[in-house]
Amino acid sequence: MSVWDDLVGQDRVVEQLQAAARAARASVLAGRGEAPEGNASLMTHAWLFTGPPGAGQVTAARAFAAALQCTSPDLDLGGTPGCGFCDGCHTVLSGSHADVKQVRTDGLSIGVGDMRDLVLRASSYPTGGRWSVILVDAAHRLTEAAANALLKGVEEPSPRTVWLLCAPSVQDVLPTIRSRCRLLVLRTPPAEAVADMLVQRDGVEPEAARLAALAGQGDIDRSRRLAVDEQARARRAEVLRIPLEVADLGGCLAAAQRLVDTAKADAEALAETQDAKETDDLRAAYGAAEGSRAPRGMAGAVKDLEKRQKSRATRTRRETLGVALGDLLGFYRDVLAIQLGSGGALANEDQRTAVQRVAGEGAAENTLRRMEAVLACRRALYRNVDPLLAVEAMTVALRAG
Fold first, then answer.
1. Is the Cα dihedral 143, 146, 148, 151 positive or negative?
2. Do residues 269 and 263 touch, judged by C-beta distance below 8 A?
3. Minimal CB count within 10 Å: which of 35, 86, 148, 261?
4. Are the CB atoms for 395 and 246 separated by under 8 Å?
């Protein structure tokens, strides 16, 4: 399986990246004095991947990084970079390639210190003699100071350094940075393509795959979770009960509390195993035996780790709430589609009875106001408003219509 197979419904983007990878290889060959192939102008030192949630920005960037490091012998015969089987592809996809650094953040932002370290690293020559690749999978989370530090690295690139930045939209990145990047916009994958992927790769039954692909609304990872995880389906069903439970103020407040509690429980469940492993790894690194006194310097490291874990828990809770709000928004979008007489399958096809019930209880303008209430809640969470207050305000607005 090649590195491009996980990019569902992104044929145009795949073609551009494959052409750039061929041009990059030609550039490497030219530096060795060998006869190059391809058009070097197709390759550039900085790329910006944008698109809707779940479309695969990070997947595309990682696939491109693997293609740049691909060592398949088929390349000499005209093969496509990114075979998925060679040592270069395998180490990139597993996160162990010495010349590929993927930047993730456990917290809500990426600080200037981390970015300065990356810019310094970018100035060094790749150990493998090909490309030094730095993949920032959440460029929209850069602080202003971190973005300015990144700008220096993008403005003055090293000959063999490639920056791969991922963000929801081009507006989420400083104009000075995006103007120096080649923009790739991923589209929402068709539900049919996502369903086919679930059937072929995950062994999901065709009808279940179709419903999961529709409910995922173009988010591939979300569709897969809904297809294979019973708990994910149960949580979604809980969220989609909200439009039917906001008939009175008590129902509004109860629904808000349940939604926030569920998001908190999900975040804690996700963090529990990871936090324990990180703590054990840290103790092992310091040689701390169970029940013994902590070695010198370990207390400070533990404190820093706990701070990162707390920040990650906050981010995870907000992301879980964001997924729930996306499901709720999709429900009201389906309601609006029925009220306006639009044909076609609903995103929440498995909830058609509930959608039709809500559609018959109000007018399209009421639904639009409810959709705006959901979007307002999402904006409030982004501005660090207390989650319970933000969700309570939303559910009361849903009742008012």
1. negative
2. no
3. 35
4. yes
In angstroms, rounded to a whole number, what is the distance separating the alpha carbons of residues 193 and 203? 15
CB count, 10 Å around CB of 353?
Answer: 7
Distance CA(393)–CA(260), nearest Å, equals 13
Residue 110: strand pairing partners: 142
Neighbours of 307 (CB within 10 A): 12
Query: Which residues are CB-contacts of 190 (< 8 A; sequence separation ≥ 6)?
Result: 9
What are 312's two structure tokens? Answer: 């990650």
Digit-coded pLDDT (tens) for 228-269: 989 889 889 999 999 999 989 999 999 999 989 888 777 776
The sign of the dihedral angle between the CA atoms of 384, 390, 394, 395 is: positive
Integer Cα distance of 44 and 379 in angstroms: 35
269 and 393 in contact (C-beta within 8 Å)?
no
CB 184 within 8 A of CB 13: yes
278, 309 contact by CB (below 8 A): yes
Torsion of CA 59, 95, 176, 124, to 10 degrees: -150
Residues linked to residue 142 through DSSP beta bridges, in sequence order: 110
Q: Which helix (H) or strand (E) holds 29?
A: helix 11-31
Half-sphere exposure of 360 (CA within 13 A, CB side): 6
Nearest to 153 by CA among 174, 167, 168, 169: 174
Instruction: Tell me which amino acid residue 255 is.
Output: A
- The predicted-structure confidence for 346-372, as pLDDT tens digits, reads as follows 999 999 999 999 999 989 999 999 999
For residues 128-145, average pLDDT = 86
Within 10 angstroms of residue 342's Cβ, the number of other Cβ atoms is 11
Cα within 13 Å of Cα(116), Cβ side:
5
Structure tokens given for 112: 């200037």
Distance (Å, rounded) from C-alpha 355 to C-alpha 62?
39
**C-beta separation of 82 from 4 below 8 A:** yes
